[in-house]
Amino acid sequence: MPEPPDFLLSVVMPVYNEQATLRDIVAAVLAVPLRKELILVDDGSADASRAILDELAARHPEVRAFQHPENRGKGAALRTGFEQARGDFVVVQDADLEYDPADYPRLLAPILRGDADVVYGSRYLVDPEDPGRPRDHLYHYLGNRFLTFASNLFTGLNLTDMETCYKCFRREVLRDIVIESRRFTVEPEFTAKVARLPVRIHEVPIRYRGRKYSEGKKIGWRDAVAALWAIARYHWAR
């Protein structure tokens, strides 16, 4: 297992119409004191995101930018990013400011200790060092907890936050996983497929600042229905 000074972390970030936050989140990722590559995948944005990606890739050698000519969904963007990842470990990062890249060392710690192969960053585990951190909005909280409960029933896992963006894992895990989802059903799909592998899955508490729909949040009730269908589908699909 690579020692901390030697490993390379691949940060895979899907981007869709995130011009308002893109520069800030990339700056936050680059500020984390780890050797890393940042893989940006523009998923057919209609705003200035694509131009910003090109600008950032030209300015920072650790940033690599890829483009979809049309919008294919988060799952498709992750699939492109995973195919391009060259690091020892991979972490998924959303392009908004809901998740804090300063949590990368916390996500990596169980893997570097040899205790885990996959680590989920949970928005709902209580962090004893920061018990008063911001929480998800009530309706999103209830929806996410219900979907996590349903996923656990099918997978046999005991997660508190299946729908979290923050999933960190050894790159070898991707050898046995082919992402089929196009939209947000990628979360239950990934979880169902990881649950069938001989890997160790851990959770750690993370910081989180949930956006409102007025601020650009994209997930709605239709995505929750689709997630329920995906939980069942990927349980039975072998």
Q: Your description of this structure?
A:
With 238 residues, this protein is an alpha/beta fold. The chain is 36% helix and 16% strand. The protein has one domain (9-236): Spore Coat Polysaccharide Biosynthesis Protein SpsA, Chain A, CATH 3.90.550.10. It has helices at 22-31, 49-59, 74-84, 104-112, 138-155, 186-195, 221-236, and strands at residues 9-15, 36-43, 63-68, 89-92, 118-122, 167-170, 201-205. A 7-stranded mixed β-sheet has the order 3-2-1-4-6-5-7, with helices on both faces. The chain is globular and about 45 Å long. Mean pLDDT is 90; it is low at 213-217.
Entry summary:
Helix content is 36%, strand content 16%.
Give the fraction of residues assigned to helices.
25-40%
Report the CATH architecture.
Alpha-Beta Complex
Residue runs with pLDDT of under 50 for 5 or more positions: 213-217
* Spatial ordering of strands, largest sheet: 3-2-1-4-6-5-7
Which structural category do the helix and sheet elements fall into? Answer: alpha/beta
Individual helix count: 7
Sketch the major β-sheet.
7 strands, mixed
What's the Cα radius of gyration? 17 Å
CATH class: Alpha Beta
| CATH topology-level fold name | Spore Coat Polysaccharide Biosynthesis Protein SpsA, Chain A
Beta-strand percent range = 15-25%
The CATH homology group name: Spore Coat Polysaccharide Biosynthesis Protein SpsA, Chain A
Mean pLDDT: 90
Number of strands: 7
Q: End-to-end span in angstroms?
A: 30 Å
Order of helices and strands: EHEHEHEHEHEHEH
Our count of domains comes out at 1
Shape: globular
